[in-house]
Amino acid sequence: MKKVSINIKNSLAFLLIASFMVNAQVQKGHTNKNKFRQLYDQFADPNKYHNASGAPGVEYYQQKVDYKMDIELDDLNSMLYGEETIKYHNNSPDKITYLWLQLDQNIRKKDAPNLEKNSSGNSVTQRPSSFVRSFVKDNFDGGFNIDWVRDLDGKPLSFKINQTMMRIDVPKAIAPGQVFEFKIKWWYNINNRMDYGGRSGYETFENDSNKVYTIAQFFPRLCVYNDVEGWQNYQFWGNGEFALEFGDYEVNITVPSDHILEATGSLQNPKEVLTREEFKRFQDSNSSYDKPIIIVNQEEALSKELLFSKSKSIWRFRAKNVRDFAFASSRKFIWERQAVNVGKNKVIAVSIYPKEGNPLWEEYSTKAVIQTLKTYSKFTFDYPYPKAVSVHARNIGMEYPMICFNFGRPEEDGSYSDRTKFGMISVIIHEVGHNYFPMIVNSDERQWGWMDEGLDTFVQYLTEQDFGNSYPESIGGLEKYPSRRGAASKIVPYMAGNQDFIAPIMSNPENVYQLGPNAYAKPATALNILRETVMGHEAFDHAFKTYSKRWMFKHPTPEDFFRTMEDASAIDLDWFWRGWFYSTDVVDIGVKNVNQYYFSDSPDQKAKSKLESYGYDLENLPDLIFKIDQDSESFNPDLIDKNPVENSKILKDYLLEQAIDIKTETPKYFYEVEFEKPGGLVMPLIVEYKYSDGSTERIVYPAQLWRKNDSSVTKIIASNKELIGVTIDPDFETADVNIDNNNWPKQEAPSDFDRFKEKIKG
Q: Taken in order 355, 356, 357, 360, is the CA torsion positive or negative?
């Protein structure tokens, strides 16, 4: 053993082994932390239902649910009664032994767990209405009252209610390809939205005692059953919205005969429910492309407000391939309709509103509906439904197929501020836009709020800018429409906020502190940056439209969106999704150092040390030229602005030998600009270089610049002009949360900071 030990000790092998053993003791391995690594650790695996390209797989399926309903609105007592027949088509490969239905109104029951889901006592102020609701008045007693559940033969079906979900046990498993039909009878008390809030309910007008009803989530609805969740029966807690199946609807709604009613679907019996003059206007509106036709004008609506008719009318609606149904009803409604061509489809843009909405609503509502249909269709697909309705409803914005409820009310004297005007136009665009996401591209709102709210807010931003161009009078002297969300600078205050109260975009809506910035603003901003700064318009628009068309009338997942955007553009975006959607990292990129240098035939001490470490003989060097930094002991300021050929005979001889024109090919000034990235988000590096002659140069370095060094990178600037300034992200396109380090020299920052503050106002 001793002999072997001596031999090994004297060998190079032993030294290598010893070195390896020492290093193994002091160094630790690590998993792949590179920001550009594949996102396989977060994505669900592709399969036969959702394939690797982001498209529906060869065995993709979804259920179909058809509804026939008879509904009656009791205006006197503010109650709603209904009886529905449901036809459930099992298109899955599975046997279904029970059905889950959503009972969303049950969050209004007196004992609903939803009422106790939040901590209390956090606020130092309280509105009088909130105080009365909390401590003086009895809680509203809402929620579904289920009279019975039966099969088509009238036999009772067993059911169990668990908070906002109802399970119906079917007598025999529903086999793949089979259909099961059953009936439900129910009723509930309609909530006063002004007292108890909510997406649906009614508002009472004190001056005339009339009510405007905006009714939704009003019937037991089937949950989604699919390959991703099985039954999507996550309880409704108030924020996560609605995952629903497509189907055909036949709905008959009984209301007082002096009411005007709009709903999802096409009205089947206008002649029966309208006066002769109203019916004529209704017919004329189907071919009025230049301006709206007023079906019921303000004077006629005022007359109806006084009637309180005791007779009833039945409004009959039919809708094909929709995922939900909602309606609005009141005797106060002014009603206007205008035709618009969307691709090859004729669509009727509709607005209904009480007189309290004027003059704002008659001026802008239908225009906003039409602009939404045009812009959204341009970026996605042609709007496929026969109409789009905007309903005036105080304090809410909420969406359903073909109909939405929107705020925006002038003062009593008819005056309104820009904030009210733009708020109303924007909410109409947003809620009508929801027809595309998620009413047609039918994402799971209960799980992924950003997939409808974020995508919708992004296209809302594009539509608002189109609206300002189409109706310049609406924005007055402004340069462009003042969008509240979408521009990169707008998200900075949120992203720079307290990390204890910020969640990744990829979070359930119930589990985030700030739902608006998280599910609406941040994903919309991310997509805008993706389009403007990362991908470019052509690549982004093609990919976004591909996703939209692939998933029309289907149920996409987040991975389907992420994969399609890459598949249709040939741009790797895993780094982008990881940073913006799966983390709460921020953008912070700065100028760390600017070093000026020149070239010389003689090495300085730093160069000599390196050469010696490489084994060079300093007395017999090959032809080399050496970089002399401004902090070198050999630095000569007199040579800094000289052509390097004047400083280097070696370089001059080489250029002459190669017949290179010295005057045109050789720059005079050389700089190393080091950029740092204290923030965690990887982003393209947008830099503006300013020169002594007043000129500027804008360069966009791709995000991949950071792939091998996540902390800092260096770029060489070689120019015939002296560099006097460096500015990162000069137009605030990347949502950089810290602009104090965005400039060199640093004293230039305050003016940019002032510009930034102006940028994020509002």
A: positive
Q: Which residues, including other chains, have CB under 8 Å from residue 482's CB and lie 6 or more apart?
A: 418, 422, 475, 762
Both structure tokens of 88:
């459930």
Can you read off the two tokens belonging to residue 102?
């959503």
Cα–Cα distance, 233 to 243 (Å, whole number): 9
CA-CA distance, 445 to 436, in Å (whole number)?
13
Where does 451-605 show beta strands of DSSP type E? 590-600
445 CA to centre of own chain: 12
Structure confidence by residue, pLDDT tens digits, 156-205: 999 999 999 999 999 999 999 999 999 999 999 999 999 988 999 999 99
Contact 69, 249 (CB under 8 A): yes
Pairing verdict, β 345-353 and 387-392: parallel
DSSP 53-68: TSSB-TT----EEEEE
Extract the tokens encoding 444.
């799971």
Which H helix or E strand runs over 6? helix 2-9
Paired residues of 168 in beta bridges: 99, 159
Distance CA 694, CA 721 (A): 10
Closest to 481 (Cα-Cα) out of 425, 537, 534, 529: 425
Q: Which residues pair with 150 in a beta bridge?
A: 156, 183
Which amino acid type is present at position 399?
E
Structure token pair of residue 105:
């109104």
**650 Cβ neighbours under 8 A, 6+ residues apart:** 601, 623, 624, 625
Cα 643 from Cα 647, distance rounded (Å):
7
Task: Dig out the tokens for 646 from the structure.
Answer: 């004047």
Crossing angle of helices 558-567 and 537-550, rounded to 10°: 130
Spans of all domains in the chain: 64-117+127-273+311-331+364-536, 587-762
Neighbours of 389 (CB within 10 A): 24
Kind plus residue range of the DSSP H or E element containing 542? helix 537-550
Task: Give me the pLDDT at residue 91, please.
Answer: 98
Tokens linked to 292: 């709206």
For residue 26, give every residue at least 6 positions away whose Cβ sits within 8 Å of its Cβ, in sequence order, or none: none
pLDDT at 14: 43
- Rounded distance between C-alpha atoms, residue 606 and residue 628, angstroms: 9
- The closest of 492, 434, 429, 438 to 461, measured between CA atoms, is 429
Residues in CB range of 574: below 8 A, 6 or more apart: 36, 37, 38, 39, 566
From start to end of 178-246, where are the E strands? Answer: 179-189, 201-204, 211-215, 221-222, 225-226, 230-231
Exposure b/e, 715-736, CB count within 10 A at least 16 = b = bebebebebebbbbbbebbbbb
123 pLDDT tier (thresholds 50, 70, 90): low
Omega before residue 354 within 30° of 0, cis: no
pLDDT tens per residue across span 278-328: 999 999 999 999 999 999 999 999 999 998 999 999 999 999 999 999 999
Residue 120: which pLDDT band, with cuts at 50, 70 and 90? Answer: low
For residue 105, give the nearest of 30, 262, 217 by alpha carbon. Answer: 217
Give the helix/strand (H/E) hosting 191. none
Residue 88: partners with Cβ closer than 8 Å, 6 or more residues away: 63, 64, 65, 96, 99, 174, 179, 180, 181, 182, 222
Instruction: Name the CA radius of gyration of the chain, rounded.
Output: 33
CATH number listed for the domain at residues 64-117+127-273+311-331+364-536: 2.60.40.1730
User: Using the 8-state DSSP alphabet, how is residue 40 labeled?
Assistant: G
pLDDT at res. 415: 97
DSSP labels, 580-608: HHS----B--EEEEEEEEEEESS--HHHH
Per-residue confidence band for 112, with pLDDT thresholds at 50, 70 and 90: confident
Q: Tell me the three state secondary structure of residue 678.
A: coil
